[in-house]
């Protein structure tokens, strides 16, 4: 993962952790790798990892157990809410781009549907 200088690294890691949660790479109830393991994987200071994980805990997406480590919440509704929130943020960005391009909503939706169908054909063909 490459980090950009426009945003604190812990926030970029948090976004990555959100992605891992919403893509089911980190499953409900699953143990999260240790701070040291994550620091090694991402090539960052353990304190930076700790800060991102604390944010996950603050949002109740992770639970800390002093003796066993950290775990992904088993509350699938919370994860689904994160998935929806993430998707809606991307939708807002896409709408802004379409507006900047002076594109009509029906045209943008037609393009999205066309790309979606093409992707499904590629996956099933």
Task: Give a description of the structure.
There is one protein chain. By secondary structure, the protein is mainly alpha-helical. It has 5 helices and 2 strands, in the order αααββαα. It has helices spanning 9-22, 35-42, 46-58, 76-100, 105-124; strands at 62-65, 69-72. It has a two-stranded antiparallel ribbon with strand order 1-2. A hairpin with a 3-residue loop joins strand 1 and strand 2 (69-72). Helix 1 crosses helix 3, helix 1 crosses helix 4 and helix 2 (35-42) packs across helix 3 (46-58). The two termini are 31 Å apart.
Summarize the model shown.
The protein is mainly alpha-helical and 125 residues long. The chain is 64% helix and 6% strand. The longest helix has 25 residues, at 76-100.
Radius of gyration (CA) equals: 18 Å
What is the terminal-to-terminal distance?
31 Å
**Which secondary-structure class do the elements indicate?**
mainly alpha
Number of helices: 5
The biggest sheet, with number of strands, parallel, antiparallel or mixed sense and barrel status, is: 2 strands, antiparallel
Taken in chain order, the helices and strands follow as HHHEEHH
Strand order in the sheet with the most strands? 1-2
Q: Give the overall average pLDDT.
A: 96
Tell me, what's the shape? Answer: elongated
The helicity comes to 55-70%
